[in-house]
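[Help] Beginner question about ligand-bound structures

Sorry if this is basic. My supervisor gave me a protein sequence and a SMILES string for magnesium ion and asked me to "get the holo structure". I don't really know what that means in practice or what format the answer should be in. Inputs are pasted below exactly as I got them.
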Amino acid sequence: MSQRMQQGQPMIVMSEDSQRVKDKDAQDYNISAARAVAEAVRSTLGPKGMDKMLVDSMGSVTITNDGVTILKEMDIDNPTAEMIIEVAETQEDEAGDGTTTAVAIAGELLKNAEDLLEQDIHPTAIIKGFHLASEQARQEIDDIATDIDTSDEELLRKTAETSMTGKGTEVNKEYLAELIVEAIRQVTVEDENGDNVVDLEFLNIETQTGRSAGESDLLEGGIVDKDPVHDNMPNSVEDADILLLDEAIEVEETDVDTEVSVTDPDQLQKFLDREEKQLQEKVDKIADIGADVVFCQKGIDDLAQHYLAKEGILAVRRAKKSDLEFLQEVVGAAIVSDLESATADDLGFGDVTRDEEDELFYVEGEDAHGVTLLLRGSTDHVVDELERGVNDALDVVAQTVSDGRVLAGGGAIEVELAGRLRDYADSVSGREQLAVEAFADSLELVPRVLAGNAGLDSIDTLVDLRAAHDDGQITAGLNVFSGDVEDTFEAGVVEPAHAKEQAVTSAAEAANLVLKIDDIISAGDLSTDKGDDEEGGPGGAGGMGGMGGGMGGMM
Ligand SMILES: Nc1ncnc2c1ncn2[C@@H]1O[C@H](COP(=O)(O)OP(=O)(O)OP(=O)(O)O)[C@@H](O)[C@H]1O
Ligand SMILES: [Mg+2]
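Answer (accepted):
No worries, everyone starts somewhere. Holo just means with the ligand present. The predicted complex, written as structure tokens, is below.
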């Protein structure tokens, strides 16, 4: 090989396994990955959205309608897709609901951005336009939102019901909404400025299988789902002094491995006596400080159980750490981790009552600081999905109580926002204007998908909705059951404004993050589908095509 030819060769600075995708191919690769993720969850949106069944590598099954749960459970191995999943996670952390909406909008923004890129509009212009539109959208949401009286329980219940519609919670949503609003009311305090502060730390969710969701309950205080360690213990204790113990009531083991060799029976007896004495001392200590009930996070030795029963003390072993932490608030106790130094001051005070049917204890504090929402469902899968739905609704009500701003759902807010953004676009100069318009179009994905999932014509629906909004009907949304356009606010489809703001902002930011990339340098194989390797080499997005198709197939 001649010297000259070698000089003409590109300098290789990356390892053989690494891959590089540039410019248009990089954009294509990223956009199709992001869209694949968004499309995977779209079919779950709204009251008529369907659920997904996810089976993990261990074979365990999750059945859910919750956007963030679907995306977390899907075994996604693609860097861009993971950025979109972060949108759902942020939405879950910040708002608790609206994860499907946020991801769907992000996907639609990228789809529309792709069209603009084809028209040779530079990514930075699109990014600028999206940013302007999202800032404007936040202002408009604030303008459109209705300020409510946060003590209006009827309206709070509606926000909870809207959030639970279309989920496992659907059939019992009225009853559950009542429990949820009451639960939030109990853990809400006013700060010095007169603002509502919802402290979800004081709210505990417990689940039980075996009965129907309609038999769920709100209890003042906490629950311990355990049995007494000994049959001869009292079952219920009123006005009890309660010890929360994070130490085993067992013989203390030495740190080092020891071997004790006994040469005559006396020695053995002495050894056993010593152990007995140690256990007796521990129980005496518990009795001395005046405890009537012990919830122990660790084990309790058989003999100690017997001593405790003799003292008439109710004891429970291997209680959940989270339960003890919650009980701390409920009965005003300290969790004791060294029994020897415990005093009467560490004890809490309250009533402990046994529910024989459900085989659990209710623990009520003097002036109960905490409440427990006991969710019931026939099977584990039912209860799990119920819990996810109730969690969303709790966040929604908590936000509404502290923020006080709500919006009309069923696509009403999205269509109104889109209209206003199109007006705003007129004031934006240059190519950014097109991006603002594309942003407006993307928001209208929500009513389109709501209609599509309900088996309605999405174009007709959008045309009707736009006409109503042009007519000044700000709260005109879709009744997914009749297919008519109606005032969804009046109909009780109400959502918190904060969640929508968050969804729009994080969708825009994620889209912009993806659009700014024009070069992907990967240390390993970029393709997720190894079978596509021949076509999916550097400079091609073949591997992603496989993924997009695969996930699209989930719809
Ligand atoms: N009765 C109803 N009629 C019309 N639209 C409704 C009704 N109830 C809820 N919606 C709409 O459904 C959408 C919410 O659907 P869904 O709860 O499935 O998704 P999400 O809240 O975005 O995500 P996730 O709940 O999975 O985190 C909102 O746009 C809401 O306005
Ligand atoms: Mg929801």
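A couple of things worth pointing out: The longest helix spans residues 265-288. The radius of gyration is 30 Å. Feel free to follow up in the thread.
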